[in-house]
Design goal:
33% of the residues lie in helices and 18% in strands. By secondary structure, it is an alpha/beta fold. It has a domain of 246 residues: Spore Coat Polysaccharide Biosynthesis Protein SpsA, Chain A. The strands form three sheets. Strands 3, 4, 5, 6, 8, 10, 12 and 13 form an eight-stranded mixed β-sheet that branches. The protein is elongated and about 100 Å long. The chain binds 2-(butanoylamino)-2-deoxy-beta-D-glucopyranose. 2-(butanoylamino)-2-deoxy-beta-D-glucopyranose binds next to helix 7 and helix 8.
Length: 368
Amino acid sequence: MPATSTGSFTLLHRFCALVVLLTFVHISVSLVFYVCSTDVSTAFLSIPKNPNRTVATEQLRSAEDHLGKELELQQCPDTSPLLGRGREVCVCVCPLTVELMCVYVTCVSVGPLTVEFGVEVTLQQVKEKNPDVMEGGWRPSDCVSVQRVAILIPFRHRDEHLKLWLHYMHPILQRQQLDYRVYIINQAGERRFNRAKLLNVGFTEALKDYDYNCFVFSDVDIIPLDDRNIYGCFDQPRHLSVSMDKFRFRLPYKQYFGGVSSLSKEQFLKINGFPNNYWGWGGEDDDIYNRCVFKGMTISRPSAQIGRCRMIKHKRDAKNDANPRRHSQITHTRETMETDGINSLTYKVVDIKKLQLFTNITVDVGQP
Ligand code: BGN
């Protein structure tokens, strides 16, 4: 054979070998991404879907509500796969949706929480960004949450803060895969504010709506800086706002239980709920802390890193001056907790509005 044709044969042979090699590499890489994507893309796809689009699931859901069945949906994972500061969730992109042809990967960042209070948000914008939030809350459509959470916010004249709270919190709460609803407990009238009593009202009213097993008590001006700070319940009462910017990202004192906390229904009832007699600012959170300790419980907390949060700066509200009786009141918790609490709660509901982003309960809690 002439030397030139031997040369072209070798070249052709090499070229073919290269093509075969590249095809092999392509198939291997696609296979690896295909296998790895099953987990990750499930996580990615479980970012809230519009329930209108999942009619069958909704029908099953209502059957579940009526018949008390748990369907075939699996329990949501202990740790939601959608959380984590700066974490990236990657999915394969498959041309023509043929999974074996997955050729490249796209990543979205789900973690970093930039919380800025200078931004102007309207309720309409928050609604548009959270189309799946209905009746003040949401629940995963592809798994059953263990945590059925009522988030209770004592409130009066803080509309600007509420907009920011809803703007930041609805997406976080959905990523946490909670079955949750937000309740604003608005104190009617202009008399002295009573945070703890409003929370007792929230507990009672929320239970008329749904079988909640967990209650988060949050001030309207506190936003977590890490979505791994779970707004759910734990073995022990939980303090969530553990490192606030206002306190230079530390606890102001070891027993501090203010800001954001959570108690399971059982824990809440064990301490006879919250005190009804703290009128004005301060002390009620210390009383609640005492109640927990006197009933043999300890306080659970996230790490200082995960528990970082920001507080919207503001002046003390009108009619929320410091409660002058608070120092003496907190020395008597052991006795008062038996008779002052959820077992002695009286109030008058003035109005209940079920809105898309929250339920608004206006209540007359009386006066000192
Ligand atoms: C404490 C308040 C708390 C408040 C924190 C943080 C009292 C009771 C008398 C010691 N307790 O001093 O209610 O959450 O500061 O601001 O005032």
